[in-house]
Predict the 3D structure of the following.
Amino acid sequence: MKPSEWKPPRIAVIGMGTGPQWLGALALEWIRAAQTLVGSARHLESFPDHAGEKLHFRSPLSESIEEIGRISNTNRVAVLCSGDPLFFGIGKTLAQSFGKERLVILPNVTSVQALCAGACESWDLTETVSFHGAKGYAGIERILEILKKGRKAAVLTDPAHTPGWLARELIRSGNPDCRLLIGEDLGTPSEAIHLLLPPEAANLEFSPLNVLLVKPGGSAKNEVPQRVFGFEEEAFERDAGMITKMEVRAVALASLQLQDDQVLWDLGAATGSVSIEAARIARLGQVFAIEKDSSRYAKLLRNLEKFRAYRVRAICAKASEAIDALPSPDRVFIGGSGTDLETILDIVSRKLLPGGLVVQTAVLLQTLEKVETFWKRKGFQVSILQIQVNRSVPTGKDLRLEALNPVFILTAKSN
């Protein structure tokens, strides 16, 4: 479509790059044809002579989206946005609100492209992490995953997760030798690009208008266990016997059927082996590991640090006293409950999200019977399996099998 053929309710969504100097002839033609311009004050000020109506984005954004929809029914509306509308921009929101067929998208360079161009830095092996609307520790763990693969991480910051904050987190996670390419006020007269190590950037202030590229250093691939799944008990600091055995853990994790962005509760976490492996095999939204024993809790914290499982939040408390205040879970693993089992099950049944799963291990028949009765009474679908593991041990020049205690794994699924 040409600007001369533009009729409502079509909406033009125009990427401004890092400033109006990035606009080409076609984008300017669409802007001139618009009867209404919508954008930030910075972008609208770039067109002081435009004869059309000018509307600033408001907070919450939903109000501006509603206004765009109303005005575009009768007027030609052009929405001005930073970078590329479909690269962590408003283009996705507009498409979801009005449908793709109603939009004309004019792309432009992103802030990441502009930063890399300014430093003559290739970005073909780059993955992008945005902190806008994301949890800080989920974001930092994603960055660490990227660095471990030897790739570069482009980072879109927000007021709470600044370059200084990111530098301090990289130091804390054992990556002080990463290199931070930090771009400030790109596309403006005050543009500046810095190449710093995390210790150099940790206590500096930068313009709120910034973007980063994190390049792996020599330590990015070291120290953290590289295996994704299936750690022996010896990999975790633990008390004797206070850990879910590797074979049982593998089946329990498979039974949880984890999906990205879910909330997982690990109750009676002990060493945290289930939480840690869960966070390594799925990009969970939040993981809460609850352990009441202070000695085991200290070991749990050290295991989280060893595996850099920053998505896991450890809580030292009785599960029955802590979980009611936590975000509602999609998945719950119960490895230990003590004398509070009935209270814990009652809270879990109330807080579990629709379609959620509860997986519990049990050694005693009495515990198994109590748990099965509870979930069936609540109308859950219940399945039970028993695991009997025999491990080989050397006997002279040969091997024999040594049996571990049988374990029941109960899965309860909400309707």
